[in-house]
Structure formats: structure tokens, C-alpha cells
């Protein structure tokens, strides 16, 4: 019986629960990865330490705890590649930055092409990535077969693998380690972490938002930074702002622990398979997004069945693996599948939302860019293209084509 | 040494001996045994090891509550991580013991897995007494009601099946089963575990069929009402070294006696916190185990169970606890000694029972909330999910009812709640043996600042093992509450998620594999073209090119396409265009609708004419294009791109029904009803004239964008003079059952002219030379009709069409928008690559980022002149004709010159032949 | 499994239907008269509530008719159904 090696442990101390104070310079609403990273960079890069992160449930218990941990930057448009590559670079030094393990494993992400149209779009993206200075490669089916021997690259599958794009520096990380690492580092710099503190309303005065009512009392602030993923629309609604967001259930699942068979992340938009084998040995798979609005953190079972059919088609060896657990998160999706970062129509209020299925990989990147935006009260250059007004001008950043589900 | 008792065993059939292999060694068993019972019978208690610690582990439970005994199946193709306590034996079964991690066997899984869909008025989950009472009542109340009973055991009865036939429970069970037999609408599924409650009365269940053709089936059950009679799971107790082979749950140990006639120990200590443990002690004693001591954490005890123990001379120690265990030094590491507060005992079995956890998983799946009950000493259902109210009831032990077995309640002594956070060396107190997680891990999580049960779960991995916390989950929550000094109800459990037991990927895939994983659509003339290499276009298989055999072998793509292009440009070609989406629009107001959904004007189209149209989304971006023919005053036939037919039909329905329901319009998909053969090339008129000699096909009599009904080779047909190649061309539409006949007739009539079949690739080359875009290839959802140079197709007369307002926005009017252009290689011969990015000529490709001005959307090695050319989207492209750029693929530049999108017959002189 | 009560065909699995987001968003009578901001609001902004939601569904694999459903976006309970979706 083969005995396995343990994963590295956590630091002896992570973070404590703080009591809310009456007032802060900045209140970040949403204690997920983005909110925690934003608070950390506000303190670290901008010296703004009188900051509270308000979380309505348990810290990092939303999409941060529910995603499939894929990290990559190979997006089509310059604006997207810009912010995601900024993030990927931060990932590469995050362990030193936070002085904790995040288990970022740069095992590469492969996006498969199954028809001539996929090939065209894949090459288009690889070429755009290369010219943006990203590590991107086009691989043919034989090369893919060598990279991922368990993938069926013959013409047997209903939708055979004809090639694919590969980003070697992409990979996965351990989401809890990341969230807790940011929380620990932020708190060490003075940030308050407040759990079980649900926002119930805001106080405004003219063009300013002055305070927030919560289940743990009223809190006033200088600046407000929303970072609440699937619940952003609800929060903005409390400010009287309607955002172009729809919140959908997105499911994921995990298998039992298995001996290593897959050391690359494999994604296939065409047949909806996103799979990696995590550090402990479980297969982690993202499923499709339900079409309807849903906040129940429960998805439709048929989505799981369809995904398993596609997975077994591509990876015959997965046939006998078992689904141990399924779950769902709530993803906030914009009309162009790109995020919204920037000012709300108030002098001192900002929003970071609309990441859809792509939020985890952006955690350090958007944290630093959003913190910079809030600190300087103007859009960081990498955030500027993602401002809300693009929906009015029509200057969208349409990432549907290259990443129908932008994991 | 066999531990099989000479008689008894409700689940085994001694007339059917079975031999299985464990780690290569044969083990004798009986039909009905599980791998766990067979190994216990063979006195081989070591079943696995700790994933990280390597510590020996045995069987703790008798069903899905077991947290350790998972094995790798080697036979029958193999399967990782299967619960030994539920895996039934059969001849040839070979398993291997594993340490917390399974192995995926190589090779295809050719097992058949079926998915079944069923409906029921009432679905009863659990066929124990509580479930059977509910089922019988429901079926008797509503005569003929469809009642479905799903039970995970091999037979109905649950716990009552393990009680003597002459007991009150045994008698009631017999009575219920008899009544059930007489009820018409009742269906029973045994060996069927409901794995998920998905809301709105939907259950998903796994049926094991060890002897069926499909070994496993997945059931989707849609029920009006759901009765959850899922029973309870026995809960362990904590102490140091609680994970050795020989430490078992007490009721499970007793169940091994009654179900499998296996005596799990010769000498035993029993430690319990509730009456069921005492009952188990009596059963074990009666079966022949020497019970050296019974420890009960409760301080007082009276009633028949205490008397039964006393009557058997068994010492009952109240307020006593186990403090630790010793194991053997040999490989098995089995239990040899138990240390307690009342002394140490040399035994080979420690039977523990910390209480019963109501099995609330299915209640929780759709969002039901539980509460802690001191009376039950467990979490019980509290508030059902809002969507389940009025649909779902929980009965029996699952609801915390401790009187499921008749006669229990009168004598029941209240259970004790024991969660100790000081149970000895914390590194040796296992709170999830499958994940090797200990009390020490839990304390480390607490010391790190974590207090939420969800955080502690993630920190320690408790509850993430193959049993998903069914074994130790609630116990760990209780210990955490003790550690935090908070009430257990405040700490709560983690969320229960489907599936209740693991489901294999292949089972979930069911029959949707291979060809069936996504339906294949082929044209009605497929027989005639099936020899060609196919291109996948959505679900369609379309002929890609038609290679000919030559002296050098079969032509490759380039050679074949060059020949096919030449044929169409100089002679005549034929193509199966049946996959084109076809929508019949009928009604007085079709013209109004078309004026709104197309960018150009349609209502003025005369009967007998065809018009090309572009469709935008409300955002002004091109979503489809195609032609529409006016068949009559009220009937119109629209064609769409192959991949977009369903979406266009749905869009038309949506606009019609939701915005303009007053319009008199009916929409019908006729894609599959009409087959289409396109005949293209300067000789096409001759071919059509041969096929339909009774009509005048001259340009004067039958002009461009005319259509008419005319029998073609005797087949009723619509003939359309439209062209996607720029050449004189005809589309022949016939009812689809004539598809093959039409294909044959065209081939025959064209033979004198050397008619050449061509595929999608040639069609693309021909249209690209004419600058006709393919929606989805030369557009990507960010392209307006103006960007495509199709301002001519955008009406200036109409006050509105879908997308018009968006085209007036600032960004849509930027002069530097990406626009469709043509490209040719500067050297006249190098091939341009689709997907190449366009940058300034001579740009430094090592100084990132390199500014990109567009990309190549379509590229072909040779057009009519044998030279490579391409289409591209280029920033401000229309004003840049003549400019030289680099098309970069894989960081290799190719100098290209920008041209207009049309590279062939710009004047359109060839369309009349 | 989300079940949608089609007013014509009865309750069916949601897989038979296409989703149409918020109900009651009418195509503007005169798009040209709208500001860019108003037009953008029509194009892109839809209600997205956590709670009861009046939305449109299309029985794509059934009667091919659009209708309104009032559904709770957390619990998936359905309260009212209305024929037609104009």
C-alpha cells in the first residue's frame, strides 16, 4: 500500500476575527480573494491601513472556496491580457510577497481545439498572446498527445482533438492557502477582518456614500470598495445603481484522491471540460454555467452529467473515477464576459465585479490594480479599459470568442 | 481461522460459495457477503492504511458510514476507491487494499451504464419500517397511486430485517411487506441508493445490479411527494488510538453477526453513549463474543437492557470511558488491548457507539436546515428547503424518531452527548481516519485563528474523504464545539452536497458516449458524399473536399481544392448545400418582421425574387446572414448559416412573440424537409437546362436573384438563382426524400460538362475571392455590417431595425474600427496563416508588446490565379489598401499587402454566365 | 432540478426551455430618440435580484411559446405563471 506525502502545513497563525470599529478610511465589502487582496495592497502599497473587510458569511467562503483554481493569462484582447498577465506575474512571486505557501504549480494550461473554427481562434489567440509578450504556444494533436498521454488524440472521440493552445506558465494554486495568506498579511498590516457582517444598506450624502449599515452595526468610511462577485448587483442596487450583471450558478466537482495521471490543466470550451488533478490527487473539474439567474449555490444535475460524458470522451481513463462532491458558486457575468473595475456614480465609491468564471486567477492582479484605483481615486491604467462606461460607448472587451466560459 | 458462525446470516446464501481474491490471496465467501464481511469472516481485519501515517486500519462500519475500508477493485476492468462495506462479492472479484488513494485503471470502460427516467406520486427513500409504513399508507390511501420505494439494501426491511421474525418489529415488517405485495402501483428498487435530492421533487439514484446486463443504472425520479426515511448513521466515540483494526461501531459489529453470520471478535469491550450500544452488546454476547466489559458514559441506567446484560453476567460500568488502545506488533496492527477508566482489558474487539446521526443528507441537499437535538443527541431536520415545503416529509430515525423499532420508546433511556476535546494524545485521536486528520490538526486550526466549521474543515481536511464525513463528521463538529467552548448548534455542520455516495464518471455519462455523446447530423444526400473527408460544423458533418485518386495517390486538401475551384471557375461544380438552415415564414406580416430583423429592406420584395440580408443583434453586431425568397403573398423562405439555424429561428420567435405578438406570422423550421444541391460555374445553366428542359433558363428569362418552381429531373423543385461563388449558379431545392435522386440526376446531367463535386473548403475559397464574409469566421461578435463593407445592405430608408440604434453609438462610428480587407503576400507565393496577427511592416518582434492592428480571418493557398490570398479584419482597413504589413504567426512575420476584400471579378460580370 | 411550469404543456424540466432573463423590458418605441446611456441600459442592464423575479422562459423543446414566470432566485420556487410574454 503506497503511503502518500503530506502537503505543506499552514502557518501557525493565520488571522483573527476583528470587531467592527465605527469608522474606517476604506471599507471593502466582500471578504473573498479579491476583497482581501485589495485590502492587503491598500495597506502594503499605499499605506492605507485603516481598512475593514466586511464578509457576510465566513471569510473567503464564496467563489474563492468554490472555484477550480485555474490560473492563466492567455486572453485574446490586449486589455485582458494586460491585467491577467499582471496578475500572473504577481502569482509567480506571491509566496515571497505573503511569506506563506500558496502552492502555485505552473504545470501549464492546455486549451483544446476540436474543429477548424477552434483552430483559427486558437491560433489567433496564441499570436496575440505572443505579441503581447506572453508565453503561448500552438500545439498539434501529436504534441498534445505527448504532453497529456491520457488524452485521446485519435480520431475516435465524437469531437476529436485537432490541436490546442498551451501556456506553460499557467497552472493551479491552493485557494484556501491564497485567501488565508492575504488575510494574514493584510491583518498584520492593520486591516480589520470582520466576518458574519452582512451589508443591509448604505447612507449617502449628495455625491458621496458616507456609511454602511450592517448586521453588526453602522460603519462610516472615507471610501467604499465593493468586491462581492455574485452579490455585487444586489449591493449596487442598494446604492441605486443598476449594473449590467447577471448572476448564475456555476458548478464544480471533485473526485476521490487518485494516483497522479494528469499534470497539466486541460480545458475544452467546445465540449465544456475543465480539469486538473490537484495537489492531493483529486480530479477537480469545472462544469458549465446554468443559463438562468440563480443565487442558491445549487446547479442543475444534467450539467454534471453532460460534463462527465464529455470528460470520458476525451479522457477514457476517467471512466472509473468517481464524483465525490459537487457544489456551485454564483458567478456575476457581464455582457462582454469582461470584468467591471472602477468608479460607481459616487465620488468615493468603487466597484470590482463581473469576473464571471475568471476571478480566481485575477486575485493578486486585480487586488493591486483595484487598490491603486481606490488609493489614487482614478483608474489604474490596467483597470481603465474595464470602466462601466464602456457599455454606453460600445467599446466592449468581448472575450466570449476566445473563452466561452472564461475559466 | 474462520469467524463465520455455523448458522444465521440474513444476507448470505451458504449454498452459493464464492471465492474472491484480496491482494492476490483467495478468500472464501458466500453469495451476499460484502468484501468487508468476507474479510472479517476470514479474520483478516487489516483493510487499509492511513494515507500519510501508514497506520493500519480495519472495518469500522457496516455500510456507507464506514470511513476507512476502501479498496481498489482489480477485476472487471477495475475501479478505484470502492467501499468494502457495500461491495458485494462475486466469483472472480479481485481487490487490493489501498492507503487512501485510488488508481485509475487504464483502458476503455466498455461496461454498459443506463440512465432511467421515472415518475411517481410518492417516492419513498428508505425501505425500513418507517419508509414502508409511509409507502403502504400512501398506496392504500390513494388507490393506484404510483409509489416508488428506493432502498440501498439487497432487500426491504432496514434495521427491522435484522431483528427476530417473532419480535414486534419482525411481525410488523412481515405485515407491511404482505400489504405491499397487493398494491398495484408500488414499485420497489433495492440496492438503490438515492444520491441526490435536487429540488422540485427530483431525486437521482444509483442502482447496483451485480447480475444485470448494465451493472449500474442511474435513475432520475420525478416525484410529486418525497418521503425521506433514510434512517441514521452510527456515530463513533473519540479516544487515543481509535483507528485500529478491531475498533468497530457497536451496532455495525452486531449487524455483521445477524446479516453475515460473522463474529467480529472473540473478546470485546463495548463502550456506548446510548441504548443501541447496549443492545449490540447483548447481541454480540448471544452470538458468542465474550463481552468482558460494557462501558456506558451515562451515570445511571435502568430498564430491560441493563437487566439483559446483568442476566448474561456482563459487567456494566456506568460513567466509564475508554482512554486508549494497544495494537499488535505484527503487520495487521490489530487491537490487542483496551485501556479504560475501569481498567485494561485484553480483547480483539472494541465496539463503540456514540449515538445515531439522523441521515439528513438528502434533506439538506436542496437547502433544508438542521438543528441540534439534545434529546436525540444529533442534528435533526428543522426547516425544510422552501421549495420542498409541502412536497417532502422526513420520517423515522432520519427525523430523530427513536421509536422506529416497535417497543423501543417505552424503555428508552436518554442518550448522552459525548464529544471530548481532551481524549488523550491529540496526534493519536483520529477525527477523519480516511484523511488521517487528528484532534491535533483541529487544535492547530483553532490556534491559527479559525473557528468556522467550514474553515476548520478546509484546514484539517476533516470530512473530505471518500465517506464525505458520514462516519466522523458530526463527531468532529462536536469536538470542535468543545474545543471552542461553544454550543454545538452554534458551530453547525458543513454543507451536505450531492452525491450521497460516489458516482462513477462513466455512469453519469451513461449512453452519451462516442457517437452518442453529441448527435451527428448529416444531410439527406449523405450517402452520395460520405466518401469525402468531413468537416465538423456544429453537429453537422459536411464534405470538406473531394480528393481524387491520382498517379501519386489520393489528392491532398490543397490539390483537391485547387482542382475543385478551377472546375467552378471554368466549368461547373456541384455541392450539397442541404445543411443550410431553412425557415418558412408565413403570414400577412412577414415583411414587417423581416424589415425589423434584417438591416436592409425586405417588405418590398416581390414574389419570385430572392434577397440577401444581414442580421444584427441589438448591439449592432452581425449575427447571421443569408437569403430570403418570397414564395407567395404570405410565404417566405429564409436560409441561414448552417451552424446558426436554430438560434436564428429562436431569435425570430422571440422578437415576434415577446415584442410584436400582434404581427400575423408563423415560423417553421424546414431545414430537414428540403435538400439543396448548388450547381455553380459558367456551365451550370447547361446542366439545369438538361435537368429542366421545359423552362427558359436564360439570364433574360430567369435573372439573378429570381426563383421559380420547376420540376428538375422529374422531381418537384424550387430553383433559385443565387450565387455564393460569384459565378453563374443555381440552387436546387427539393423535398428531402429526393436528395439522393437529385444528386444522381445532377451528376448525370453534368457529366458531359465534367461536373465536379466540391466541399466546404472550395466554397470558402470561392466566396472569399468575392469578399463574402462567413459569419463566425470573418466576424466574431464585434463586427458591424459597415465593418464588413456592407453598408449597401444597411437601409437608410428604414426608421429602425434591430441594431440600428447601436450603430449610431460613438464606438460604432470610429473610423479606425476593424474592417474587412483582403491581403496578398508581397512575394506572391507565401502562404498566409489564419489567425496570424497584423503588425506594422518590419516591427521589432522582440520588443513586447508589439502593437496589433488586426488579424487574418480566412486564408487560402490559392485562388483562381493560383496565388495565396486572405481576408482580414484591420484597424481602419478600408483606407489602408496598398499598405504593407506583417502577418505574424508564431512570431514569424510575412509581408503582406492590403487589398480590397474582393479579389475576383469585382464588377460582378460573371454571375450571368 | 429546476422545473418550469409551462402554461400550455405543464411542469417540465428546465432543460426543455430557453431562458429569457427579466420580463417586462420592452423594445423602445423609438430607439433613435434615446440617449446612448438610455440605449445602453436597454441593451445591457437587466434586473438580477436575489429573491422573487419575474422572468421569461421559452419552451424550446415543447410548444415553442414564450411566457412569464415569477421565480425565487434563491429557492427556485415558482409563484405565478403567465401566458404570453409581450
Automatic annotation (TrEMBL), chain A:
Reaction(s) this enzyme catalyzes, per UniProt: sarcosine + O2 + H2O = formaldehyde + glycine + H2O2; sarcosine + (6S)-5,6,7,8-tetrahydrofolate + O2 = (6R)-5,10-methylene-5,6,7,8-tetrahydrofolate + glycine + H2O2
Residues of the Rhodanese domain:
26-70
A single BP term in Gene Ontology: tetrahydrofolate metabolic process
Where on the tree of life does the source sit, at the highest rank? Bacteria
Q: Name one GO cellular component term.
A: cytoplasm
Alphabetical keyword list: Cytoplasm, FAD, Flavoprotein, FMN, Nucleotide-binding, Oxidoreductase
Q: Does the keyword Cytoplasm apply?
A: yes
Drop me one GO molecular function for this one.
nucleotide binding
Q: Name one Pfam family in it.
A: DAO
Q: What is its EC number?
A: 1.5.3.24
InterPro entries given in the database record: FAD-dep_OxRdtase (IPR006076), FAD/NAD-bd_sf (IPR036188), Rhodanese-like_dom (IPR001763), SoxB (IPR006278)
Locations listed in the record:
Cytoplasm
Query: What cofactor is this protein dependent on?
Result: FMN; FAD
Q: Which PANTHER family match?
A: FAD-DEPENDENT OXIDOREDUCTASE DOMAIN-CONTAINING PROTEIN 1, SARCOSINE DEHYDROGENASE-RELATED
Q: Of which family is this protein a member?
A: Belongs to the SoxB family.
Q: What is this protein called?
A: Sarcosine oxidase subunit beta
Native organism taxonomy: Bacteria, Bacillati, Actinomycetota, Actinomycetes, Propionibacteriales
TrEMBL record, chain B:
By its UniProt entry, which SUPFAM superfamilies does this protein fall under?
A: Aminomethyltransferase beta-barrel domain, FAD/NAD(P)-binding domain, Folate-binding domain
Q: Which InterPro entries match?
A: 2Fe-2S-bd_N (IPR042204), BFD-like_2Fe2S-bd_dom_sf (IPR041854), FAD/NAD-bd_sf (IPR036188), FAD/NAD-binding_dom (IPR023753), GcvT/YgfZ/DmdA (IPR028896), GcvT/YgfZ_C (IPR029043), GcvT_C (IPR013977), GCVT_N (IPR006222)
Domain GCVT N-terminal, first and last residues per copy = 530-798
SoxA A3 domain location: 430-511
- Look up keyword Zinc-finger and say if it applies: no
Instruction: Using the record's annotation, list all stretches that form the Aminomethyltransferase C-terminal domain.
Output: 818-905
Show where the FAD/NAD(P)-binding domain sits.
121-364
In the record, the note on similarity to other proteins reads: Belongs to the GcvT family.
Q: What is this protein called?
A: Sarcosine oxidase subunit alpha
From TrEMBL, chain C:
Gene3D superfamilies noted in UniProt? Folate-binding superfamily
Protein name, per record: Sarcosine oxidase subunit alpha/sarcosine oxidase subunit delta
- Fetch the InterPro entries from UniProt: SoxD (IPR006279), SoxD_sf (IPR038561)
Under the GO molecular function aspect, what terms does this record hold? sarcosine oxidase activity
Q: Biological process GO annotation list? A: tetrahydrofolate metabolic process
Q: Which domain of life is it from?
A: Bacteria
- From the UniProt record, list the coiled-coil ranges: none
Amino acid at each position: 500500500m503506497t503511503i502518500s506525502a503530506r502537503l505543506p502545513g499552514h502557518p501557525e497563525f493565520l488571522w483573527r476575527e476583528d470587531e467592527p470599529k465605527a469608522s474606517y478610511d476604506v471599507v471593502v465589502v466582500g471578504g473573498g480573494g479579491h476583497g482581501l487582496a485589495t485590502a492587503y495592497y491598500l495597506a502594503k502599497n499605499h499605506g492605507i491601513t485603516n481598512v475593514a473587510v466586511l464578509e457576510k458569511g465566513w471569510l473567503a467562503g464564496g467563489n474563492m472556496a468554490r472555484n477550480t483554481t485555474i490560473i492563466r493569462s492567455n486572453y485574446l484582447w490586449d486589455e485582458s491580457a494586460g491585467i491577467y498577465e499582471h496578475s500572473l506575474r504577481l502569482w509567480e512571486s506571491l509566496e515571497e510577497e505573503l511569506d506563506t505557501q500558496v502552492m502555485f504549480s505552473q504545470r501549464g494550461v492546455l486549451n483544446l481545439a476540436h474543429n477548424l473554427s477552434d483552430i483559427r481562434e486558437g491560433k489567433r489567440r496564441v499570436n496575440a498572446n505572443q505579441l503581447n509578450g506572453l508565453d503561448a504556444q500552438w500545439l498539434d494533436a501529436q504534441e498534445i498527445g505527448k504532453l497529456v498521454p491520457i488524452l485521446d488524440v485519435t480520431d475516435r472521440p465524437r469531437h476529436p482533438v485537432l490541436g490546442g493552445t498551451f501556456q506553460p506558465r499557467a497552472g493551479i494554486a491552493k485557494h484556501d492557502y491564497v485567501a488565508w495568506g492575504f488575510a494574514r498579511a493584510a491583518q498584520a498590516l492593520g486591516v480589520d477582518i470582520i466576518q458574519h457582517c452582512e451589508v443591509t444598506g448604505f447612507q449617502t450624502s449628495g455625491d458621496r456614500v458616507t456609511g454602511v449599515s450592517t448586521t453588526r452595526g453602522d460603519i462610516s468610511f472615507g471610501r467604499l470598495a465593493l468586491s462581492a462577485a455574485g452579490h455585487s448587483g444586489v449591493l449596487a442596487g442598494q446604492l441605486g445603481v443598476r449594473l449590467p450583471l447577471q448572476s448564475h450558478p456555476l458548478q464544480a466537482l471533485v473526485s476521490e484522491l487518485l494516483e497522479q495521471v494528469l499534470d497539466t490543466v486541460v480545458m475544452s470550451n467546445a465540449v465544456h471540460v475543465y480539469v486538473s488533478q490537484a495537489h492531493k490527487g483529486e480530479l477537480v473539474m469545472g462544469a458549465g454555467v446554468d443559463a438562468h439567474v440563480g443565487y442558491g449555490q445549487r446547479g442543475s444535475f444534467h450539467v454534471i452529467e453532460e460534463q462527465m460524458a464529455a470528460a470520458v470522451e476525451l479522457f477514457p481513463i476517467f471512466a472509473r473515477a468517481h464524483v465525490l462532491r459537487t457544489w456551485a458558486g454564483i458567478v456575476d457575468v457581464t455582457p462582454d464576459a469582461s470584468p467591471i473595475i472602477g468608479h460607481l456614480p459616487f465620488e468615493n465609491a468603487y466597484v470590482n465585479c463581473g469576473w464571471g468564471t475568471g476571478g480566481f486567477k485575477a486575485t493578486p492582479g486585480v487586488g493591486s490594480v483595484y487598490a491603486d484605483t481606490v488609493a489614487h481615486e482614478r483608474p489604474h491604467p490596467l483597470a481603465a479599459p474595464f470602466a462601466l462606461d464602456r457599455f454606453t460607448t460600445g467599446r466592449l472587451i468581448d472575450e466570449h470568442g476566445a473563452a466561452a466560459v472564461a475559466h | 481461522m474462520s469467524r463465520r458462525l455455523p448458522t444465521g446470516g440474513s444476507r448470505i446464501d451458504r449454498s452459493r460459495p464464492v471465492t474472491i481474491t484480496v491482494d492476490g490471496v483467495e478468500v472464501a465467501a458466500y453469495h451476499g457477503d460484502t468484501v468487508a464481511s468476507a474479510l472479517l469472516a476470514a479474520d483478516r481485519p487489516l483493510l487499509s492504511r492511513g494515507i500519510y501515517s501508514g497506520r493500519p486500519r480495519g472495518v469500522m462500519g457496516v455500510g456507507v458510514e464506514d470511513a476507512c475500508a476502501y479498496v481498489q477493485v482489480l477485476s472487471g476492468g477495475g475501479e478505484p476507491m470502492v467501499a468494502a462495506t457495500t461491495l458485494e462479492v462475486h466469483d472472480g472479484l479481485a481487490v487490493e487494499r489501498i492507503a487512501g488513494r485510488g488508481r485509475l485503471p487504464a483502458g476503455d470502460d466498455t461496461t454498459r451504464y443506463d440512465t432511467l427516467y421515472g415518475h411517481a406520486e410518492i417516492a419513498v427513500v428508505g425501505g425500513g419500517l418507517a419508509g414502508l409504513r409511509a409507502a403502504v399508507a400512501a398506496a392504500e390511501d390513494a388507490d393506484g397511486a404510483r409509489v416508488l420505494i428506493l432502498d440501498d439494501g439487497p432487500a426491504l426491511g432496514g434495521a427491522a430485517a435484522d431483528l427476530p421474525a417473532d419480535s414486534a418489529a419482525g411481525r410488523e415488517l412481515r405485515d407491511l411487506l404482505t400489504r405491499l405485495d397487493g398494491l398495484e402501483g408500488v414499485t420497489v428498487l433495492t440496492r438503490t441508493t438515492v444520491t441526490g435530492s435536487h429540488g422540485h421533487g427530483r431525486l437521482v439514484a444509483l442502482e447496483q445490479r451485480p447480475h444485470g446486463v448494465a451493472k449500474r443504472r442511474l435513475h432520475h425520479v420525478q416525484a410529486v411527494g418525497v418521503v425521506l426515511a433514510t434512517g441514521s448513521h452510527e456515530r463513533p466515540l473519540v479516544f487515543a488510538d481509535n483507528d485500529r483494526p478491531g475498533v468497530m461501531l457497536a451496532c455495525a459489529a452486531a449487524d455483521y453477526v445477524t446479516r453475515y453470520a460473522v463474529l467480529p471478535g472473540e473478546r470485546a469491550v463495548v463502550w456506548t453513549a446510548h441504548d443501541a450500544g447496549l443492545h449490540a452488546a447483548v447481541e454480540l454476547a448471544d452470538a458468542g463474543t465474550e463481552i468482558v466489559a460494557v462501558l456506558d458514559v451515562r451515570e445511571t441506567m435502568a430498564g430491560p437492557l441493563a437487566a439483559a446484560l446483568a442476566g448474561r453476567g456482563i459487567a456494566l460500568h456506568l460513567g466509564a470511558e475508554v482512554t486508549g488502545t494497544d495494537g499488535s506488533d505484527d503487520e495487521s496492527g490489530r487491537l490487542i488491548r483496551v485501556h479504560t477508566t475501569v481498567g485494561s482489558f485484553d480483547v480483539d474487539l472494541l465496539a463503540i457507539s456514540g449515538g445515531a446521526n439522523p441521515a439528513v443528507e438528502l434533506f439538506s441537499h436542496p437547502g433544508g436546515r438542521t438543528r441540534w437535538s439534545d434529546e436525540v443527541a444529533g442534528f435533526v431536520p428543522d426547516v425544510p428547503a422552501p421549495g420542498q415545503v409541502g412536497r417532502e416529509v422526513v420520517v423515522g430515525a432520519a427525523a430523530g424518531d427513536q421509536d422506529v423499532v416497535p417497543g423501543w420508546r417505552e424503555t428508552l433511556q436518554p442518550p448522552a452527548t459525548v464529544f471530548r476535546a481532551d481524549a488523550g494524545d491529540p496526534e493519536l485521536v483520529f477525527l477523519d481516519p480516511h484523511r488521517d486528520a487528528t484532534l491535533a490538526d483541529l487544535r492547530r486550526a483553532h490556534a491559527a485563528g479559525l473557528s468556522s466549521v467550514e474553515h476548520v474543515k478546509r484546514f484539517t481536511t476533516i470530512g473530505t474523504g471518500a465517506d464525505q464525513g458520514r462516519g466522523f463528521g458530526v463527531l468532529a463538529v462536536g469536538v470542535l464545539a468543545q474545543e471552542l467552548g461553544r454550543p454545538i448548534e452554534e458551530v453547525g455542520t458543513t454543507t451536505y452536497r450531492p452525491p450521497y455516495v460516489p458516482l462513477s464518471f462513466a455512469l453519469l455519462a451513461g449512453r452519451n458516449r462516442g457517437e452518442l455523446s453529441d448527435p451527428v447530423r448529416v444531410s439527406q444526400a449523405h450517402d452520395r458524399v460520405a466518401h469525402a473527408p468531413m468537416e465538423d460544423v456544429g453537429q453537422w458533418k459536411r464534405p470538406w473536399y473531394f480528393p481524387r485518386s491520382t498517379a501519386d495517390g489520393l489528392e491532398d486538401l490543397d490539390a483537391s481544392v485547387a482542382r475543385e475551384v478551377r472546375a467552378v471557375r471554368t466549368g461547373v461544380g456541384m455541392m450539397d448545400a442541404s445543411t443550410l438552415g431553412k425557415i418558412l415564414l408565413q403570414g400577412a406580416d412577414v415583411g414587417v418582421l423581416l424589415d425589423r430583423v434584417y438591416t436592409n429592406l425586405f417588405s418590398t420584395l416581390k414574389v419570385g425574387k430572392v434577397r440577401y440580408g444581414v442580421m444584427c443583434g441589438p448591439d449592432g453586431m452581425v449575427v447571421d446572414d443569408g437569403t430570403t425568397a418570397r414564395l407567395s403573398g404570405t410565404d417566405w423562405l429564409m436560409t441561414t448559416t448552417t451552424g446558426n439555424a436554430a438560434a436564428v429561428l429562436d431569435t425570430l420567435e422571440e422578437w415576434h412573440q415577446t415584442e410584436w405578438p400582434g404581427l400575423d406570422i408563423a415560423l417553421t423550421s424546414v431545414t430537414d424537409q428540403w435538400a439543396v444541391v448548388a450547381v455553380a460555374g459558367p456551365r451550370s445553366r447547361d446542366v439545369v437546362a438538361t435537368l429542366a428542359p421545359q423552362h427558359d433558363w436564360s439570364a433574360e428569362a430567369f435573372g439573378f436573384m429570381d426563383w421559380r418552381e420547376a420540376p428538375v429531373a422529374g422531381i418537384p423543385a424550387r430553383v433559385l438563382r443565387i450565387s455564393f461563388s460569384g459565378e453563374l449558379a443555381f440552387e436546387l431545392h427539393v423535398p428531402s426524400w429526393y436528395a439522393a435522386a437529385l444528386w444522381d440526376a445532377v451528376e448525370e446531367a453534368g457529366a458531359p460538362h465534367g461536373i465536379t463535386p466540391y466541399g466546404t473548403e472550395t466554397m470558402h475559397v470561392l466566396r472569399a475571392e468575392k469578399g463574402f464574409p462567413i459569419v463566425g469566421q470573418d466576424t466574431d461578435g464585434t463586427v458591424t455590417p459597415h465593418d464588413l463593407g456592407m453598408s449597401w445592405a444597411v437601409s437608410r430608408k428604414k426608421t429602425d431595425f434591430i441594431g440600428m440604434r447601436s450603430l449610431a453609438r460613438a464606438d460604432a462610428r470610429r473610423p479606425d474600427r476593424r474592417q474587412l480587407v483582403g491581403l496578398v503576400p508581397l512575394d506572391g507565393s507565401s502562404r498566409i496563416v489564419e489567425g496570424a496577427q497584423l503588425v506594422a511592416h518590419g516591427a521589432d518582434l522582440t520588443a513586447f508588446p508589439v502593437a496589433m492592428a488586426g488579424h487574418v480571418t480566412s486564408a487560402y493557398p490559392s485562388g483562381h490565379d493560383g496565388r495565396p490570398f486572405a481576408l482580414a479584419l484591420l484597424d481602419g482597413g478600408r483606407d489602408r489598401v496598398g499598405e504593407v504589413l506583417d502577418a505574424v504567426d508564431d512570431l514569424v512575420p510575412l509581408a503582406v499587402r492590403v487589398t480590397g476584400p474582393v479579389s475576383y471579378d469585382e464588377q460582378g460580370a460573371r454571375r450571368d454566365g | 432540478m429546476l422545473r418550469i411550469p409551462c402554461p400550455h404543456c405543464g411542469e417540465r424540466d428546465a432543460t426543455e426551455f430557453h431562458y429569457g432573463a427579466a420580463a417586462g423590458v420592452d423594445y423602445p418605441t423609438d430607439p433613435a430618440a434615446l440617449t446612448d446611456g438610455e440605449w445602453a441600459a436597454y441593451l445591457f442592464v437587466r434586473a438580477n435580484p436575489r429573491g422573487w423575479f419575474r422572468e421569461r422562459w421559452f419552451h424550446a423543446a415543447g410548444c415553442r411559446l414564450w411566457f412569464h414566470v415569477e421565480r425565487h432566485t434563491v429557492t427556485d420556487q415558482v409563484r405565478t405563471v403567465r401566458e404570453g410574454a409581450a
